[in-house]
Amino acid sequence: MSEQPMAEGKPFEPRIVAFFCNWCTYTAADLAGTARMTYAPHVRVIRLMCSGRLDPQFVLAAFRHGADGVLIGGCHPGDCHYQEGNYKALRRYRLLKRLLREMGIEEERLRLEWISASEGDRVQKVANEFTETIRRLGPLRLAPRPGAIRLPIWVPAEPQPAAREGALP
Amino acid sequence: MHAPEVYPDGGPRIGVYVCHCGLNIAGKVDVHEVVEFAKTLPFVVVAREYKFMCSEPGQELIRQDIEEFKLNRVIVASCSPLLHEATFRRVLERSGQNPFFFQMANIREHVSWVTEDPRQATEKAKSLVAAAVRRVIFHEPLERRRVPVKDRVLVVGGGIAGIHAALTLADAGKHVYLVEREPTIGGHMAYFDKTFPTLDCAACILTPKMSAVAAHPNITLWTYSEVTRVEGFVGNFRVQVRRKPRYVNEELCIGCLQCIDACVYKDARFPDEFNLGLGKRKPIYIPFPQATPRVVLIDPETCIWFKTGKCKRTCLEACERKAIDFEQQERIEEIEVGAIILATGFKTFDARRIPEYGYGKYPNVYTALEVERLVNAAGPTGGEVRLRDGRIPKRVGIIHCVGSRDERFNRYCSRVCCMYSLKLAHLIKERTGAEVYNFYIDMRTPGKGYEEFYDRLLQEGVHFIRGRVAEITDWAITPEEEGKLILRVEDTMIGVVRRIPVDMVVLAVGLEPQPDADEVRRMFNIFCSKEGFFLERHPKLAPVSTFTDGIFLAGACQGPKDIPDSVAQAGAAAAEALALIDKGYVELEPNTAYIVEELCSGCKTCIGLCPYNAISFDEGKAVAVINEALCKGCGTCVAACPSGAARQHLFEDVQIFQEIEGVLAYV
């Protein structure tokens, strides 16, 4: 587990976190699988319902915890399952780019792609391309390579009674 | 295990199940290693592998472990959650657990099927399992929202698929709105004379169904109408339909057609759309005698009254029922339905896009659809196959795969062209005795009775030449080619380039998506596949469903299909819609957003972001309030809330942060 990719002689294996929306890009990634389109294994996909759910903190957290690159995937403009969540993602993406630049992180480490549910080949292409980009940029080295697992100690909040009641029609 | 006392339910007790999926996963991923790895993860009580987790024994394995090890969280590492999340949630439910204490790790579509190196695939699978374990610790019990469902269905498109779906639902006692863009229902099937391979008369099997639609008490038929807006969600769609003016009152017109005789134009002189311009019609017309509804319409583009305001309007006097209404305006109807079936069909490939075939240049080059009209007894020639100059052709060439299986246009096979070419070959030979040549790439006749029909054509003496026609020209180089169209083709069976002179060419044009398929899919919030046909939810397990719940597909709008397949799919779509609305309610995924009032600062950032106006502001408490009935769970407000007061069930910040750490912790 505590494999050290940065050790002498070993090639740099980028660590990439991808946030894909449920309706377009995640489905496209499934399609890439069904069509057996192999691509670089470095991309780890986290499913969100919409790219509009992408809290900029997710991206920063990914970098903080050791990601070398972050990929965001959403529906094409005009195709958002929730009408316009992808436009919100685009705004946050631009903001994040600026923020990363100010923090001295290469802005190419963050990439946004519109990939529709039928574009499995695009997932393959983007994953490969992005992996190459990150490989070229080298490791980000924000976080030490993990040794021990940090145990999540957190008491799940009791469901908010006021909010939950509204749930039932 | 660590500090279980901080967890109110005695601490998470997680079971991890890694699926082999036959060799789909196990052929690439070292499943055993993933299991051993999972055992080292926090709160994991048991980790196992099994050939097929989704099978009954696989599910039973989970059920037994839940009982034996008192599991309260379950991870299944297998295929995509879009495929089997519901399956495994049901396992938890049946074991008395809240189904949302479950997380799936997608190690098939996202790992084993897309990774070349087994070592890297195994590492990736491990990191996805680790992320799932971390995430599920923070899952919470949730309840699905139950929402009542409207008891009515909208069917868009009145071809054979739409007709069949509408009749099936109406017979089941449900009210159906059937909306058709053209003045009559019937779709492409109404053009045909015979259907393959049985050669039964298309009108004899279609027109009874058309009149059944018109007469059915449970069907509201709106022809010459288009859907203009769709709102709402599964079970509760609000749809706006625009009914174009036909300048004839549908309720009053009885289809006596006296107005057409009375029109000041003594002769029909305008190209008849239904006969693809091969016949003529008047400005007031009916598309074809069996049109349903049997109601005439006026074309304002050609009617003198609409063009000049000066006409004796003899049609008005001729109509005893006073049905003609030159003042008619378009009408907007608003309906509420529980389910929608899209059966919007296809268009045929535009043969002008292949200039070397000379369609539009040589009058005797026809598309197959035009020939369907020529061989039709109700067509412009009364079923006689005559060329535009009135001659009867002695030699006919049928070119297959026009616009299909062609890198320049469409790569896919249109599925119906081989068979309809055989049918047309038979009909042309029968009607004219002509020599018929089929130019094909491969003969594709899979289907009940199809190969037998091909055999029959071979016996009938129809010629088959294997090769794609390079060009059609009228440039004769021998006396027998004079006045003919010459097809230049490489006969790949004998490896010789041949010139074959014919009198008539039939282009077996392929099937394409409707030109406005992209706008339609946006309106209904569904997707198109690469070729532009509507995308089904799953090619095998959900072939008539879409990614938007409550919207189903039937017929060739989903991909090229012949009549039997379209009807079968229409029946399936009707059954799916019926299953949905007959239950009376739907259960919605509880992934809605909510506000933690104590944290809300009342900044109102979220309110403007919500595309569904689900967020309002409680002035008394000075906090935002989310109407969960309106929320669709995109989470845009959650991502934007500066104080962390807006949250989303199933996609809580903490769950996603854990997932992020999880995928990164073990790389």
Q: Briefly, what is this?
A:
The complex is a heterodimer of chains A (169) and B (667). Chain A is α/β, with parallel strands linked by helices. Chain A is built from five helices and four strands; from the N terminus they run E-H-E-H-E-H-E-H-H.
Helix content of chain B: 25-40%
**Termini separation of chain A (Å)?**
48 Å
Instruction: Name the structural class of chain A.
Output: alpha/beta
Rounded to the nearest angstrom, the radius of gyration of chain B is: 31 Å
Number of helices of chain A: 5
Query: Helical region count of chain B?
Result: 18
Helix content of chain A: 25-40%
Largest sheet of chain B: 5 strands, parallel
What string, H for helix and E for strand, traces the elements of chain A in order? EHEHEHEHH
Low-confidence stretches of chain B: 1-6
What is the residue-mean pLDDT of chain A, rounded to a whole number? 84
Number of strands of chain A: 4
Q: Radius of gyration of chain A over alpha carbons?
A: 18 Å
| Strand order of the biggest β-sheet of chain B | 10-7-6-18-29
Tell me the total number of β-strands of chain B. Answer: 34
Which structural class is indicated by helix and strand composition of chain B? Answer: alpha/beta
State the oligomer.
heterodimer
Low-confidence stretches of chain A: 1-7, 151-155, 157-169
Chains forming the largest contact: A-B, 74 and 85 residues
